[in-house]
Specification:
This protein has 255 residues and is mainly alpha-helical. It has nine helices and no strands. The chain has one domain. The protein is globular.
């Protein structure tokens, strides 16, 4: 989901969008118009890998866009991080497309790519490096927005979003590291275990999103004055609850 814009568009966003558009161009099956029906069928065989690759690139673009729509980042540190991110994305499209083509070819039987069994581990490592670096850089950008909250003049809710989104994308990067380690150690490479491990991203994102939404709702209610502390919760300014026991103490008069 694309976040609502909180400020005017910047040249960083414009340049970034141009780089993402160029990356999408690199995913195109063929830049030439088919000459005959056979060429058309050949190009159609690459439609599903293209769709998978485009969906992954689109997801990265949305994650990147939301940062700059929410926070007016434009300092040198941001420019450096963003430049490294865009460079990584342009590199990442090649292993991304190759991986998508290999997956589809495995199920359809079409010889879209040629790869030996002993090369699978290297493919998973290269793909994992691109994945990890992309989402680690996105997490760093969110972390930078949180640390710059005073300079950006953002409210507590926006600062909370920056902090929790940073953690969110760090889990993405952690899954990539796990995939790299599995491929490096040769654990289940022939079965595709280092690839299937990316399915845990959805589970981790759901768990993180659920906990994040609950805390965010409380923060919103506090900010609007709608949040009230339940009666059974003791606060420093309220008296401790009275505990009733079965022991009765009777005070008598002295003497």
């Amino acid at each position: 989901m694309i976040a609502s814009r909180e400020h005017e568009s910047t040249r960083i966003e414009a340049f970034s969008d141009a780089m993402f558009a160029f990356a999408a161009t690199l995913l195109v099956v063929s830049l030439e118009v088919p000459r005959d029906f056979s060429d058309l069928l050949t190009n159609l065989h690459g439609f599903i890998p293209f769709a998978l690759s485009f969906a992954a690139l689109y997801f990265i673009w949305v994650a990147h866009t939301n940062i700059f729509r929410r926070y007016a980042l434009g300092d040198p540190y941001t420019i450096i991080l963003n430049g490294i991110l865009l460079f990584t994305v342009l590199f990442y499209v090649y292993p991304l497309k190759f991986m998508a083509t290999a997956i589809v070819a495995n199920f359809t039987g079409n010889a879209g790519v040629v790869i030996q069994a002993d090369q699978l581990g290297t493919l998973f490592i290269v793909y994992g490096l691109g994945w990890t670096l992309v989402f680690f850089l996105i997490a760093l950008l969110y972390r930078h927005a949180y640390k710059s909250r005073n300079q950006l003049n953002i409210d507590a809710l926006s600062a909370y979003d920056a902090q929790t989104h940073s953690r969110h994308y760090l889990t993405f990067a952690a899954v990539g590291v796990l995939s790299i380690v599995l491929a490096w150690l040769g654990v289940g490479v022939r079965l595709g275990i280092p690839g299937f491990i990316y399915a845990t991203v959805g589970i981790l994102a759901a768990v993180n999103g659920s906990s994040r939404r609950k805390a965010r709702e409380v923060l919103e209610r506090v900010g609007t004055g709608e949040f009230t502390i339940p009666d059974n919760v003791t606060t420093p300014s309220s008296p401790a609850p009275v505990v009733t026991t079965g022991i009765h103490v009777v005070k008598g008069n002295n003497g």
